[in-house]
Design a protein that fits this description.
Largest sheet: 2 strands, antiparallel
Helix content: 40-55%
Number of domains: 2
Distance between the termini: 37 Å
Low-confidence stretches: 132-166, 180-235
Radius of gyration: 21 Å
Structural class: mainly alpha
Order of helices and strands: HHHHHHHEHHHE
Amino acid sequence: MGRAPCCDKANVKKGPWTPEEDEQLKDYIQTHGTGGNWITLPQKAGLRRCGKSCRLRWMNYLRPNIKHGEFSDDEDKVICTLFASIGSRWSIMAAQLPGRTDNDIKNYWNTKLKKKMMNTLISMPEIRKPLHHLQSPNSLTNYSYPSQPYFTNTSSYHDQALTIPSSPITTAAAAAAASDHHHHHRYGGYVDSSLDSSLEEIKQLISTNLCTSTVDNNLNFFVDDTKEVENVMYY
DNA sequence: AACCTTTGCAACCGCTCCCTG
DNA sequence: ACAGGGAGCGGTTGCAAAGGT
């Protein structure tokens, strides 16, 4: 059983959008708005697409002021800082990066930034030892980073002040090292249960004494060492 | 040149959240 | 208080392009 599908799958087109469809969707939304109802929008716009597909296309590609292309060092820094404190909350990150979409950030993290972090981390002698078994990206597996790791109490994350560690990059790198599950099927996809304890070791290592000097020298392209702790409010 | 592998990105799927009646 | 349903989110997949052998 399960819930009813959001649209008639049989009569709905899937796959890449054509320029004509893009134009049709853009024209409709620019003239009429979304009306707050994506389910009925495709029919009104004359598109044979699922409402969710229309929403995604608009949000990630067609809406005005979308930024495409390379991420700046500043953007890297924001992503790493947030990843260190909140994990893979891409939409929250997107809210902090004007013009970037959650999908963009997610893809960027999974394909590039995570590797960048890994390489940085592995190059750090203090961290190399505990991470010796993680050095090959191909050995990385299914660790799930806690979804809300640093909230200060148990209420909803929407109105929480987040505590950002003083060296978020190391924490993000450690998390990256332990959480490379994107495309893990392409790397073999087995599960290594020792990773849970590895992450704890890394976090402990970082939080106890490994903070600033070496870390910042290695990571000076991101780390803002002017603040011990910064609080960021979302929503 | 042909084939294989890896990478990057767009899009889909299924789940949870949250609003409304 | 509760159920239904749409919106939004994060994980995953498919596929084309790029790179390597």
